[in-house]
């Protein structure tokens, strides 16, 4: 199966003077399924994590370097290093990329796969083939990602505080052969007798109260000032319910005293009686005029009463902090347990805030899922790019009054889900999206009518808000995408009439 990565050039977003030249962006095809995508803002280099491979690409998706990460003899039950004499059931196993993160200050990349109990490596940003650290003989303490391909792992690289160590914060669900840890803080450099990827302290791991497997699906990790956040879905058994939780902890917290969880709910605006959307599929954070906001897309499955559908909900981090701040401020040093003012029966932790945040979706769509979200603010206008399960990227203007309007839709690949890693380049000129299978190319939509949120015309010949340049392997379907709006292309049927 051909697996393609698409890069979209968003001229409509580029500041005056930049990006006037139509840039020719290529697509990149991986032999194996693509799992993760990150872009180095400084260099523009794109890194891809795929099954059994890592790729380093130029900003226009030309292959610069690649490294094989699998397959290798393994068995989920065996402790690496795998030796045939110790692990009789080892079979050639694919390595699914579970985590791909940049550490620009240290010019390195963190990469963890499903192979060998989810151990990780550090690689050079300059040359992804150069492995800076890899150790498969450290045992349990080095198991970071889930070794179950279907269990998501999320993370972020940061420091414990100003001048503090570089660390990796990891959130993951629990596969049948995982170690039960769902959140952990990992060293990235050797310190005090600890190797890279070991827990930052003996206490810097958190096991879920629910030890049964496949309970949590992690969706996103992000930071905000002194805090680290995780978004995950959790299937509770008693009482039976599906929840989306937001966990927060202090970056500097060797004891995990600050770990807190809170429910997030996204309500369907069209039907107040309908149950809230049940599952969060993607989330990201952006800084708007009104402060930092968490944007999360939720779905409900077809069996629920409202039928299949999805929505975008906004959670201002100020509101999140207001709920949580009462409980635990971030600070230094051990915090006396008795000062928990939130009064939960689960003390000392996790300190569940039972009344979480409920938002009403600012945009909802029936019959499809929103599968990716990235948000940018340009000239004070908040623009969300939303990937869909039917292979499009919706361009949505989010007005300060809480309303939204979809003013464009980029067909990427019909009926192929846009994967979660939807990334804008540092200069906001390109949007990188991953899908599967081969695409047929449809032209982008014409400029939005009426309340166009962004300045769309940068030069006299530029009438489209957005250009899409795609070339598939060996077959250039790039052709003429510039030109007058609607110059003989005709919007695809499913793209017309959206608002
Ligand atoms: C990157 O590293 C690989 C393996 O060490 C080497 O073969 C290759 O030449 C390097 N590439 C560059 C551009 O330095
Ligand atoms: C929760 O989600 C799972 C998986 O989608 C589903 O099988 C289960 O029925 C849901 N449970 C509830 C209580 O909605
Ligand atoms: C949308 O997401 C829900 C929840 O993950 C899933 O049950 C459903 O099959 C998805 N629908 C589509 C069209 O992708
Ligand atoms: C616009 O198109 C005209 C005719 O093709 C060309 O002469 C002119 O240089 C173009 N302007 C810009 C800014 O590209």
TrEMBL record:
InterPro entries on file: Plexin, Semap_dom, Semap_dom_sf, WD40/YVTN_repeat-like_dom_sf
Domain of life (superkingdom): Eukaryota
GO cellular component, one term: semaphorin receptor complex
UniProt-listed SUPFAM superfamilies: Sema domain
Signal found in the keyword field: yes
UniProt KW Transcription regulation keyword: no
Protein name, entry field: Sema domain-containing protein
Any one Gene Ontology BP term: regulation of cell migration
Signal peptide range in chain numbering: 1-19
An MF annotation (GO) of this entry: semaphorin receptor activity
Annotated Pfam families: Sema
Domain Sema: 8-444
PROSITE patterns xrefs: SEMA (PS51004)
Swiss-Prot/TrEMBL keywords: Glycoprotein, Signal
